[in-house]
Amino acid sequence: MKTVNEEKIAIYNGEDIKYFVFPDKFDHTQSGVPGNPCYNFRFRIFVFFSYIVLTQLFQLFCTPTEKITGVWDIGHQITTPINNLYKEHRWFSIALQLLSAVILDVAYLYISLYWVLYQRNFRLFAALIIFYVVRAIHLNLVKLEFPQNYYWEDPSIPSLVVKYGFFSDFFYSGHVGYLIICGLEMRKIGKKYMSAFFFICSLYQAFVVITFAIHYTIDVTTGCIFAHYFYNQVCYWEVKIDFFLKIIANLFARTPKQPNIKYEVQGDKQIGVITA
């Protein structure tokens, strides 16, 4: 293994893969897994030519050429019978709308209050701010037409975060992306069951927004991708974000005196404790 500073590094081996950390001065032309196929020149040549062939095949056979008027969405086409059920049986559509709203309201309150009571970093809200600011920019850069089956009538029961009626806030889905960020945050702090709950709820929200045709299918998939990407970026820059927040807070502080904070290890966790 070639490294700039010749540091010894562990090798990925099943159970210890999650504990692997690259040295500070690692040669990133190399791999943390010595002996993987990429060290074989013939394999790299095979990948190179396969890449060329596949890109040409995708251009020939996977690029649509039809002249489409409006927006063609296979998700809406497949779920048209369900959409018709909503219109024919109002009680059914109200039930699904209310469940969707309850899930989002509970997530909104739970994740926010948990942060207030237990967390000491800005990671969650940094991810949410970036997610929704970029979404707002996209909504005003490109305005899409309403789907033909758009159906989102007011069930006459208010919600904290869900609005009803005609709103062209399509790209990308905040319903799904928000729950993805909640799930990622819960997984980050070790709450596996809550994380799984939020991820399952995101699937339900995806079903609702597509079958009610209040989002295009691409809004849902990109909402998941953007949420995951922004959250990972915030995790990468987490310390610098908190440090920047501290600088801003110091500018408005009445006194420059800062609390004395030390770190204590409890089990496998390092916890900040204010001592004065």
Question: What is the C-alpha radius of gyration, as a whole number of Å?
Answer: 24 Å
Main β-sheet, spatial strand arrangement: 1-2
Task: Sketch the topology as an H/E string, one letter per element.
Answer: HHHHHHHHHEE
Cα-to-Cα separation, first versus last residue: 47 Å
State the helix count.
Answer: 9
Structural class: mainly alpha
Portion in helices: 55-70%
Specify the biggest β-sheet.
2 strands, antiparallel
Contiguous low-pLDDT stretches (5 residues minimum) are 1-15
Instruction: Label the overall shape.
Output: flat
Overall pLDDT: 85
Protein name: AtPDCT1/2 transmembrane domain-containing protein
Transmembrane segments: 43-61, 94-117, 124-141, 161-184, 196-218
Domain AtPDCT1/2 transmembrane: 73-231
InterPro entries: AtPDCT1_2_TM_dom, PDCT1/2-like
Report what the structure shows.
The chain is mainly alpha-helical and 276 residues long. It has a domain at 74-240. 55% of the residues lie in helices and 4% in strands. The chain has nine helices and two strands; from the N terminus they run αααααααααββ. The chain has a two-stranded antiparallel sheet with strand order 1-2. The longest helix is centred in the middle third of the chain and has 29 residues, at 90-118. It is flat and about 60 Å long. The two termini are 47 Å apart. Residues 1-15 have low confidence and may be disordered.
